[in-house]
Amino acid sequence: MGGIGKTTLARAVYDKISSQFKVSSFIANVRETSTQGGLVNLQKQLLADLFKDKSSDIKDVDRGKNKIKHGLRHRRVLLVVDDVDQTQQLEALAIERDWFGGGSVIIITTRDKHLLIERGLAEDEIYRAKELDDDEALQLFSWKAFKKDLPLEGFVELSKEIIHYTNGLPLALEVLGRFLCHPNVVFWESALRSLRQDPMKEIVDILKISFDGLQEKQQKIFLDIACYFKGEKYVDRVKSILESCEYEPISGIDILISKSLVTISEGRLWMHDLLQEMGHKIVRHQSQGDLGRQTRLWLSNDIIRVLKNNSGTNLIEGIVLNSPPQEELNLNSSVFLEMKNLRLLKITATFSNCGRELRVYTS
Question: What GO terms in the biological process aspect are recorded for it (predicted)?
């Protein structure tokens, strides 16, 4: 999961123990660097850091790998490879256990646990960064917002609301702390109302990196969970629904878990509140504000508006109305006619078929 503090932890460890090694390197932003400049640039940085070889003329990835491999042999090194998202990146940097000298320390940060397992790491060698507890979160937020370890008088309850909203995510605490650094109660209250409607782009952009790396069916599973299935029983309910949609949930859910996008606790599916909000925002953005073209509908008012106006299109894939409408709705029987790709429909209400009319009553 992005923003959980993996890079910060790795940097702290590196700074603390690097003096114990004659040779050390911190390769930051591997995902971004390899996308922009290619794997050869990563190899050149590693050679420059470890062997002071700034003039190395690497023609291709294989030659760079061989040069690194021979240089690393029998050397005791400290190496941090940060934000890896593809196994080719580790291969290019010659990350193999038997290529390093005794006592070497290699730290890899990634959003994808499967990459580490592919490299032969055991479960007890993998550390999953955790959200901050309330006390830690309040302290971090206070340092960013107030430059001290506790909120100012008059801002304690508002700060606690921020802590609840961020659910311990360090990135969100830092971003919001900087944003709310001017102690103005009216501004804070307004900002909180706005955040509940629309999360800050800086936070969403970081979280969305993991989503963008998913395959299409995995993205659909994630969005279904965000819109419909958070807190639902996986085996008894959600698994069979996703299987009926031909989404391969066994492998799909496993990948989402490995990327820390969802968890299963006591048999139920969960995700961080900000990840759920990100999912909602993605769905809304795809439709550009047109409810009739929104792939998933989950809010009562939105669903009722689409049904009353008969504005549904073939882009709608799912409608879940968990609470019955407060008013009687007289719907034409053709209300679902244009929703040719509708695969999931759940409406908690009583239906009465009256001739050519469909009536929805409070149950």
Answer: defense response
